[in-house]
Amino acid sequence: MIKIKKKKDKVKKSKDKKSTIRKLLVTGLVSTFCFLGITANLARILIVHGQEYSEAAYNRQMKNQILSPKRGKIYDVNGNVLAMNIGVDTISLNPGKVCYASKKQVENEFVAQGLAEILELDYNEVLQKVSAKSSVVVIAKKVSEEKADKLKEWMIDNKITKGINIDEDTKRYYPYNNVASNLIGICRDDNSGMIGLEDRWNHTLTGTAGKIVTAQDVNEKPISDETEQYVPVENGSNLYLTVDIAIQQIAEKYLKQGVEENACEGGRKCNCDEPSKW
Asked: Is residue 52 classed exposed, middle or buried when 0-12, 13-18 and 19+ CB atoms within 10 A define those classes?
């Protein structure tokens, strides 16, 4: 009986040993396949998508700040400015993120009411923008300095410190209003030429934008890096005309008077130097 029991124990230990070996082999094979799978995936990422991910990481780390050039002025023959830029502001807002200094969110209706009154806009349209699901919305463009200052005062008085953005911009301004407007032309909202000389000489007047490229960390703070680049801005060139704005004003005045007196639909004129000899 003792011998039979010992034999059974010996057989049991042998089976346990074989079972352990099988478990180790299975574990080893699984680990090997997992390692090979991970290695293959890393190889795929590095070889197939390496360039793509590298560029994405670079773009995420680098901040590209565009420097807008100043549009050139247009002068008449005597140096009077016919077209120039004046400072204005663009008002934008981060819906759902307009907060007091205490970090409490400001009610949409209160924000819309204040913006509509100061910027002289329709309340319902402003409220729709303030309540939008977008990350940022433009409330108004080409806002005068006076209105922008009122908005800043309103924000200070109500202790609103976050969510309303006031960004500097420029607007094309014509000191002589509509005089020679068919010749000078006008600009679009982005200050690019639309018609007339503004359009014909747009490339010359516009100039070339510059940029500053800097590295930034995860908190968007600048990092000193050898990849920093600075491309200087080239402002637009000025345009000098042979037009005399004083003569142009007189000619347009009497042309308008003649059209009205003779009940004409319109008229044309031509300004030219008086010939020294006929």
From this structure: exposed
